[in-house]
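step: validate -> pass
step: tokenize input -> pass
step: predict -> running
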Amino acid sequence: MRPNGLTDLLSFDELTACICLHCQQRSYWYKGELVIPADVPIPFAHSEMPEECRGDYNEAREIVVKSPKAASALLRLALQKLMVALGQKGKNINDDIGNLVKDGLPVKVQQALDICRVVGNNAVHPGEIAIDDTPEIAHNLFEMMNFIIEDRIARPKQIQTLYDQLPESARLAVEKRDGKRN
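step: predict -> pass
step: emit ->
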């Protein structure tokens, strides 16, 4: 049954549309179970996730309970799009990860990337990972994607913003110390 705090908009047999009295958002229920928005214990997309990845991530989030394989495949697609945002070609994820490793990618980020790549590949090309038997594997991919975004996009952006706020004289002194001149 629906929790308190909802008011019915309309009801047809076993389908009910409601409005939350707190946030004013709509929800849809079928046979007393929440259908939309999806009731899944999966983190939302990182606030810094590139838009070209966000749609695939959100779609995967909405279907992961019903199809962990499909969600894993969508997250692999989001990962491929993320490679472009990280300055890679986005044609071959394995090669892109290798290029990032050559550029000094931390091992834990490389491992997170490879987890998403391998599990996503096995979702559409059956291999040694049985996603149907252990949907938790698919659930963990969402955390891996957000971890990658945090490390490769959000944290560098935050550091750059703070660095840019340093006095110009301090930035010039750092550039001089490090042999960098504009």
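step: describe -> Residues 135-164 form the longest helix (30 residues).
step: cleanup -> pass
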